[in-house]
Amino acid sequence: MMLLHLLNKIAPLMELTLSVAHFNHKIRRESDYEEEFVKKECEILGIKFYSNSGDVIGYSNKNKIGIEEAARKLRYDFLFNTLNDISYNKIATAHQGGDLLETVIYRITRGSGIYGIGGLTPVNEKLTRPMLIVTLKDVLKYVTINNVKYVNDPSNLSVEYARNRIRHNVISELYKINSNVEENVLRLVETVWEYRNTVDIEFKKRVKFKENTYIFKLYEDIFDAEVLRKIFLINGTYPPNMEETKKILRMKSSGERFITPLKIVKKKDELFVRVEKKEE
Amino acid sequence: MMLLHLLNKIAPLMELTLSVAHFNHKIRRESDYEEEFVKKECEILGIKFYSNSGDVIGYSNKNKIGIEEAARKLRYDFLFNTLNDISYNKIATAHQGGDLLETVIYRITRGSGIYGIGGLTPVNEKLTRPMLIVTLKDVLKYVTINNVKYVNDPSNLSVEYARNRIRHNVISELYKINSNVEENVLRLVETVWEYRNTVDIEFKKRVKFKENTYIFKLYEDIFDAEVLRKIFLINGTYPPNMEETKKILRMKSSGERFITPLKIVKKKDELFVRVEKKEE
Question: In this protein, which residues make up the domain named tRNA(Ile)-lysidine/2-thiocytidine synthase N-terminal (chains A, B) (predicted)?
Answer without folding.
Answer: 1-169
